[in-house]
Task: structure prediction
Amino acid sequence: MMNKFLKPLILVIGLLAVLAALAFWLVFFSARPPLTTDSATLAGDGSLVDYCSLPLLDGSGKKAAEIAKGNTPGCGYKHFPLPILAQCTEPLVEGAADIRGLWQGVEGRHTGHVERVEQCGRRTVVTTAGVIHDYGPNSTLGENTNDTEGSVMFELGGKDFCSRTSASMIWENKVLNFYAFGWGPLVVKRYLDGEQLVWEYVDGSVTKMNRLCTLPEEQRAPPQRRR
Result:
């Protein structure tokens, strides 16, 4: 009787182990996405920008689809880069709230966290903690974010390995919803609550953020990443 149940159990455990190993390989060892972020944007100093002075989205400049996709260099940028969508003036799509600007967590799980949000047409870019998440129409890559995540990394043979991330960022009734891999579950929400930007995780944790005009001094050094 024991053998009757033991063999299927071993098969299930073996299959789960194989799937876990495959997932680990895909996350850490599969080919990195090509870096398509404009080199001048990465080289520039985004800490010098006044983020309370936002571009007018009047359609007089470039459309979102005309600008190269922004994504994360290596396992994270070395300093806060210039805005990805600085030349884009395409009006926001219906259903989108205007959450453009620089935000800092003041209450909740990620107090002190600072992020920059850019929007143009159907495109949204979130830049924070070494990572550039860019979703929407662009001139170089697919619509979903296609990045590395430096907060989850390890060193092997003198080389850093960091995890892959991919998501969609879709506006639905004034809420920016993040879907894992573009087709997976809803994992993150961002939405306005009065003058604050609310950042909500699938586990129910919430961070409330206030608007900033300039990057805080302590955020200008290279981001700290866990190993």
User: Anything to note?
Assistant: The chain has two domains: 1-30, 35-219.
